[in-house]
């Protein structure tokens, strides 16, 4: 049947495709009720630019990556992603994410999203030579005039409301990172506000720059055309108008009525007093077609329905063969049966593709649900003997079960626990939940359920924690129950502590070390959120002792237990001791899970102890090697790297990595895990003078601080204080930081090297004339910094002390303090800290009439601030120089060429200069290869270079200051 109507919608889609062809990736949302023609519209749109099977390069230059959600498979993690990657005919007859397929081994949606990005690169032809190749001139970008045959990739996700959550998260992750790709992404859904869609994906596809196509019913004239195409009796104008009012123009309902009622429908529509019949159910249509099939075709369709929405032809026929009687098998063959099913509209097939598919999920559902219990169970048992994958075999056995089956439940639980050990939390949760349903023993049921919920938590897939907690609260009191309730309550610290304490009292760690390690790990996280360093380290150490020898991090149900231990030691003043106890560690690329954790911890400790070069080196390696880890680990790695880069003065890199960490957190609907990153983003944008961006990050941090928890309150206060300092508003610095004086006794908030705020508060009070409060805020920090011998903290304290004494009028004490700071500056890498010391000292010298010496300090400060590109502080420095009667000089930053680049371009340039290929750069920054190529096409002309070698030489020279 030819496509009818929708010319306006097709025009919107065609325009979006041409923008994609020009290198502007497009997001398209097609929405409308069931049967309204969304899938037909997308197929017609694709057919306009393609004349070959999906997944193949065609003359018009379009390649289609297609996936469709299915209600019965919405719990199969990464099932839809497998379709998009073209693995629909995988082992076991299902590409749709069987738990034992490749999908089952993915740790989370970020890894899967990166895989999808690579697939999009390949589909665009990004596997060719690197662009530009070494020593190959890079032409300046030319105006884009896309040819008709320029390749375009169309990624289509149909029935997104039924897609599995991990696949949707992976899609959102990939789409966020399309920059210069020739890709059009079409998401087809009944309703954009469907709660089954992740918030991140919904925001992406309802934003202002998304093309939204809302399908309503066809108009009366189009219904007439639809009837003609269907071969129905000609509808009069009156009948078409009434049919439109009766059906809302829903093409599915209209076609059903036309097919079922024929001329009698026309007669009913012509009689005003006669109510036209309602469309028969879609199932009835499907079953009518099925009933007309031969036994062999019927068996093939039913077998395929049991195997899923798509499956291997051979698997379907093997299952179907056992469903036929002996006399029906005689003369029956796969191709004849398949041809009949395709002709009946029950299955579809593509030449050269061994996979058969149902034309619509409703067809699959209609066939599957019409199977009687006996036949359905028998087919599932045959499927269990046919498929090769263990997870699929167990799935079919579970669907065939007619009642409790403890043996099968135990097998499912064992498989789920093996997935958990690999960090495949989503699939682990599904297997354990299935085990719970099949075990009639109440204790076993509860245990499997508890473990299932824990895995779902780790997968970030518990949409309603309150409901989960209520369900678990009805379970028999025990250690696992209290532990999980405590884990679900970590945002109510008092309740979480009480529940974890109860779990610990109920647990015998010697008899159940697995539970003991989990409880201890959560206690470590709990004390970390309360800034209790010593307790955090103690519980983390206990968790590691309780876990089996040579354990993977997942055995403590957290993949950051070693980081928690090291951070706890640092927060309690034992950072040098913790560093000394680590011993030699391998290169991050060669590190195992536990070693990668320790490398992350070592990088953080090095930052806190002032070894910024070592910190950036460690953390860059960890970030580059952690692509297979959980999202929370990658957020922490990116944030730690950004923190070290900020202190080291590598602010462009810090911006890139804060943005990446925040994006990773948002992609998994876990923005709360990146609040420290919000503070960092505020800091770096504030010192750059981007006050609007800094304020936006600070506002988000303040929202999360509203619950009254210590850490969110600390990060919000620091964000607001650093923004106010950069803007020269000491009264707002005091407003932000003064509450920390009351919070400090509740945790390790004053430890030098971890967070710095006492020096800012003291300087702000001194500026406001309240020297007494300034001294009270500063004194404890000075004592602790002296006790630790921490040069960076002693420099900051000396700067604040000099400012305070100058405000008091004690020039001798102020001079002594500033000179003390200069001694420590020789041991400090952080350029901003050194610049602010020289600026404060220079200002003091000017005000005491020593302009020549003041000029020396101020010029030193200015050189540092110019290299950092710190406009707010640089302007203060230049005002001081002008007050000395000295010219400020030309603002020529050290990184002259690098200053021309955006943060993302600079990140790409540095990675390319380090010798990475475009694909390696793409993986490092979690962007597409096309985006890397796009950035290089802008970087080379901006810097005036024509090869990767010359780019590396230019950046090396600028970093050396030559």
Structural account:
With 962 residues, the protein is mostly helical. Helices cover 61% and strands 4% of the residues. The strands form 2 sheets. A 5-stranded parallel sheet has the order 2-3-4-1-5. β7 and β8 form a beta hairpin. The model is unreliable at 51-60, 89-100, 127-146 and 550-554 (pLDDT under 50).
Task: Sum up the structure in keywords.
single chain, 962 residues, mainly alpha, five-stranded parallel beta sheet, three-stranded antiparallel beta sheet, 48 helices, 8 strands, 4% strand, globular
Average pLDDT: 86
Main sheet record:
5 strands, parallel
The helix-and-strand class reads mainly alpha
Helix % is 55-70%
Shape: globular
Number of helices: 48
Assembly level = single chain
Tell me briefly what this model is.
The protein is mainly alpha-helical. The protein contains 48 helices and eight strands.
